[in-house]
Design brief:
two-stranded antiparallel sheet, 103 residues, mainly alpha
């Protein structure tokens, strides 16, 4: 049912990513929000949401995704193009990004 090597690798990558976010943002988040772990907590929330979505997707048959794959691909392209719309995306150092809540 579950491949322990994949689960272990994903868990290790998630933990390393959380440690990197925490160590890289403590000073900035302390200065900007007064909470030194603001960005870490936000990233942890997104990790939790991603894990819940992965668990939901795990219970979904592969045929369902294959059947709707062209629509999923089209949706991904639409999301990529939306950052070019003024008011939705903004430019940072020459790169177009989603306008986040911190900006």
């Amino acid at each position: 049912m579950f491949d322990s090597w994949v689960i272990g690798t994903v868990a290790a990558l998630l933990l390393v990513g959380l440690v990197m976010v925490a160590s890289a943002s403590i000073g900035v988040s302390e200065r900007e929000t007064g909470n030194p772990f603001f960005y870490f907590e936000r990233q942890l929330l997104y990790v939790g949401m991603g894990l819940v979505a992965a668990m939901i997707r795990h219970g979904d048959p592969d045929q369902h995704v294959e059947k709707h794959s062209i629509f999923l691909l089209g949706g991904a392209f639409v999301l990529l193009l939306l950052v070019l719309v003024p008011g939705i995306g903004h430019e940072v150092n020459g790169s177009r990004r989603w306008r986040g809540s911190a900006s």
